[in-house]
Amino acid sequence: MRFQIPLFAVLVMTILSYSSTLFAEEIPPSHTTPRADSRGFVNVWQLRKDVSTIEALTAYDNEEQCHSEGDPDQLLSEKELQRIQQNSEVCIGEVKRAYGKYVKLKQTLNDVWLPILYSAIDKGDEVAEVIMRQCETTHVLMRNGIESTCDSSPVRRRRANQRLLEIGFIPAVDISEELLDDRGNSMAQRGQNQIAVMAKIKSGALGYNRSLINMNGNTADDKTTFDNYFRWSLMEAIFQDAPRAFTFSPGYAEAGWLTSEFTTLRLNRKPLTPGYLTRGPRLHYGGGRSIYTGPYYWRFGPLEIYVSGNAFSTKVVAGPRNLKFLQQREKLLAEIESNIDAYLSKEPRWAVFLLQRIGHHEWVPEGTSSETSKINYTWLGDWALTDVFNSKRNNWIRVNESSNKTKARVSRKDGATFIALESDKPLSSPIADTSECQLRYSGGLTYLPAEDKEAAMSRETVLGYLSTYPIEGLSEPLKPLHPKKRYKQVLMHCPEGESLDNQRTRYLLLAGETMIEVASDKGAIEYIRHFKREDID
Q: Which of 41, 244, 404, 471 has a Cα-to-Cα distance from 324 of 20 to 30 A?
């Protein structure tokens, strides 16, 4: 048996070697970067920066990872046992040093900031008070001197939450005690959970435990159940369409793929992308091919519920032709925007928690910038359409490419990358021409095809789920893609491409000198087009 020190221990010395310098650079002297304004209120942007430095160096006093769990029946020589013991001792030493360094840096942060935070609270700084009382905001601040939501005493936790209610910044209020796990499938409790969550949604808090409000099945027994389905559908539509929020729970969070930094109110967050292939308004769970539908994108069609006891009777609960649903959705979106504006108007520093949506799936914290628009230079240039493939009845066929002359130009403007498509004949959606469509990475890569030929021709292809049935002839449209390579997905953001108010899937892949366009209006992929780079004089 050969003992190996965990990767964590290998990296510790690197962290230790530069952490002091990094900390010194990230937390400058107060005379160079003010930590409070003229009112004595906290500079939340500097606090975010300092907190992010310490959070990145978080370490734990976990020595268990340094002990080998070898085969107890295996006989080891004395020399091997000594080597194992020595390696374990080295690992434990590194863990202790890393943890000790983290504790020291965390203490330094608190020595610098706690006096400023408490002084600001005394002067009426409600943003500072929320940061201290709501433990979600960061785990590196020490809150022994104030009642907070992570207090060991239930009485003190309730007092902290009561104070958060009095402050009135609802996204910071803890409603967990109002939400009960509905294991008995009680429609009344499910409705109460939805109402409690809806109150926070109206404040711009879209981060919540979806399992406590979601509806399962497609049958309703009474008005309570119908009301729950309607409310759930409305909440899902807001989840899909809201342009801003203080917290947000992406569908792929339910697969355990996302940390709590977006679901909860946090000071320090990085821009969020799905990290894997997306399809227009739909997205996939963490790294897999199953599509989040909950319920399906509301613009795709009506959500119909069967009336219990009558298999042939249905009631439309929500959808694009349900007037009540449309009116309530517009009203709720307007209320959310109005409440966010009111928070920011009263105190602009609440923006430290604000998230902005880009397209369907990307969220960017206020004060940070998205990197997804930084498209590689190899995309730039002029392209000509060479091949068009269309899916008809689960069979991909080549369309006569000479029937339409289409040119594409990829260019940069003000740091962003755009594609313009121009044809000699008018084209309809989903491959309509566009004069300016911004390109953004989704954060995802194509999947590798299945090993066996039959599976490769089915829905488990490099494009993920294309259909619920096997697709013939797909090898030709995908021929430019190397079977052992993965390709970055580039989304087309514009009215003719993917936008929040449409049902379209439209994205690009670059395989050498071939640019591949994938497009559909809803459902399965309809078109795959190939463009070849034109010679530049």
A: 244
